[in-house]
Design brief:
Helices cover 40% and strands 20% of the residues. The chain is α+β, with helices and mostly antiparallel strands.
């Protein structure tokens, strides 16, 4: 029989071995593979929405961000000042064409800061699209480049968005037989599960309840408007 101390060391050894094996087997993508992933995701979303609708939605989302920035809502007021940003042109839409997951690439002008990516969501309610912010992925510069005083490029952040934000959007089609008429990959509806999690609503069941919860998030955004009269404060 192993004594308690030996059992503990055996457990730690097994955990270390499992961790090493997981890291070793973890898939790493190069820039070309990540570009292909991004292209495939865009192709799928355009297939669901149509090309014109895809770019119309993208432009509408960008217009919303600009309006929030100009109206100085919450953290959006820093966009274009201390923060450069891009709404990634790749986004993921579900089969029903009523939920979208984007990402906002945020580049800080402060040489000692870290870049970040915001999850950005879109939901269609009564044939109208509404947008709101989700979680944040922080990107410490030292993880990705030697120069910690220069912001990460938007191209690098697009790669990281494909790897960390969009990963899991598509899954292998169990019906795929290699024939041209059968897609190799299909949309993974579980990818959109966060939009119906308790993070947004603890007791929502019906679609009407979910729509009300989303609209609350959209409307609460406007409650964070900065009404400070900065010209008056300068006097």
């Amino acid at each position: 029989m192993l004594n308690r101390e030996n059992k503990l060391w055996l457990l730690l050894w097994c955990l270390c071995l499992f961790s090493y094996s997981s890291c070793k087997n973890k898939k790493e993508y190069d820039a070309e593979e990540l570009k292909m992933i991004r292209d495939n995701y865009m192709i799928m979303s355009k297939k669901i929405m149509g090309v014109d609708a895809y770019w119309n939605i993208y432009n509408t989302a960008n217009d919303s961000i600009t309006a929030w920035q100009q109206n100085r809502l919450g953290l959006w007021k820093y966009y274009g000042n201390t923060i450069n940003y891009q709404l990634d042109s790749v986004f993921c839409v579900n089969e029903e064409n009523n939920k979208i997951i984007f990402s906002i690439l945020r580049q800080y002008l402060d040489e000692d800061a870290s870049e970040s990516i915001w999850w950005f969501y879109g939901v269609k309610i009564n044939e109208q699209w509404y947008f709101f912010k989700g979680p944040t992925l922080v990107l410490p510069r030292e993880f990705y480049q030697e120069d910690t005083h220069t912001p990460l490029s938007f191209e690098k952040m697009k790669e990281l968005a494909a790897k960390h934000i969009y990963k899991g959007y598509l899954k292998e089609n169990p019906l795929w037989t290699g024939q041209p008429e059968v897609d190799e990959y299909v949309i993974n509806e579980g990818f959109f599960a966060d939009l119906t999690s308790v993070a947004w609503c603890t007791n929502c069941v019906t679609q009407e309840q979910w729509d009300a919860a989303y609209m609350k998030w959209v409307n609460d955004n406007w409650k964070n408007k900065d009404t400070t009269n900065w010209e008056e404060r300068k006097k």
